[in-house]
Amino acid sequence: SKVTFDYSKAAPFIGAHEVDFMKKQVMDARELLVSKTGAGNDFLGWIDLPVDYDKEEFDRIKKAAAKIQSDSEVLLVIGIGGSYLGARAAIEFLRHSFYNSVSKEIRKTPEIYFVGNSISSTYIRHLIDVIGDRDFSINMISKSGTTTEPAIAFRVFKEMMEMKYGKKEAAGRIYATTDRAKGSLKGLATEEGYESFVVPDDVGGRFSVLTAVGLLPIAVSGADIDKLMEGAADGRKKALEAEYEDNDALKYAAVRNILHRKGKSVEILANYEPSVHYVSEWWKQLYGESEGKDQKGIFPASVDLTTDLHSMGQFIQDGSRIMFETVINVETSREEITINEEPVDLDGLNYLAGKSVDFVNKSAMNGTILAHTDGQVPNLMIDVPEVNEFYLGQLFYFFEFACGVSGYLLGVNPFNQPGVESYKKNMFALLGKPGYEAQREELLKRL
Ligand code: PA5
């Protein structure tokens, strides 16, 4: 079994011939990608990453993870966007639902907190409270080495660490994941002697989960990064080698573009397992930042179900008909709970006695798919056979490859993010950063 894409439930909205008709366009987009001749072709290092990565560094990642596990009760992972979401997605998907709060006997590995993904002083102060006087390590992740959010958090926690351990021991507890040669984080790491890991030049943030960016925090959490890479390598083989007719990544790219051209401008990624929440957050960045440009793109949204059926369900069923829905279905639940019979059926649930909670969850899912389809929301499905590193690796690669093809189909450069700079310019001007004086005057007049 493998991660599979199934659009059979969208049959009322897409004729089989439509997917055939897309073949030439999809194959052309695929060719642009794999021949590395399209826009953004200097950011395609992720295509071969699962088979062509730095093995020596991979070993160092495992060693660093083992050291952190042995000398720290807490790991702080500092990063934002592509330097944040992949690790969080993997850890929340693979590990205990209450990873940080469950007992150490069950978790076995350090608590892991993510910071530097906002500019909230309250969040930082509260995290300081959580660390208390316990031993901790820091993984500071920034490809550019200059992003404001993580840089601010790093200043605070570096100071805390140096106060606690002294400069020398602190340096042994700080791990920097950044560019091979440039940026202020690289300079700092060299100056202070931090162990460094590399974000390859040709891998953009949102495609970097299978580099040290994702791998070090994932390894610290106790997840098996060898299996993750194996799954990604398997996903790569399928994406690169399967014919169009049997190629799930190509068909996902085709089908979402067919629906887009029919006026569906929003794709909602839905899940029925809370542990998938951050996979959706990672996916939103991947697709949103890759496709949302030149006033084009499908808006990537997400819901956690059945939770959000009680908040967003009304809109999906019955509001503006602007969306299609892609369900991530974890086929086999990790844990099983059976609903027991009660002598007096006060809550009226005895009709479920002997059934599993997951049976109820799957029934909710199937019922919802049909209801939303009846409500004119085309439903696609991505099946994940079970929760493990191998299938997560497949899933990451499936989404990345489909994203590259889909972006070329849309006619954009899927590998840049020029729009991310606008807020930064304004923020720097308002903060009084040297060099932004003229913009500052303009902006202050407008506020
Ligand atoms: O995908 C991207 O390029 C962004 O989301 C970046 O990952 C994010 O801005 C963080 O950048 P950096 O790793 O340079 O700090």
From TrEMBL:
Subcellular location: Cytoplasm
Reaction it catalyzes: alpha-D-glucose 6-phosphate = beta-D-fructose 6-phosphate
Keywords, comma-separated and alphabetical: Cytoplasm, Gluconeogenesis, Glycolysis, Isomerase
Domain of life from the UniProt record: Bacteria
One biological process term in Gene Ontology: glucose 6-phosphate metabolic process
Pfam family, one: PGI
Active-site positions on this chain: E289 (proton donor), K424
EC numbers: 5.3.1.9
Principal cellular location given in the protein's record: cytoplasm
Family: Belongs to the GPI family.
PANTHER family, A to Z: GLUCOSE-6-PHOSPHATE ISOMERASE (PTHR11469:SF1)
Protein name: Glucose-6-phosphate isomerase
Record organism: Eisenbergiella massiliensis
Gene: pgi
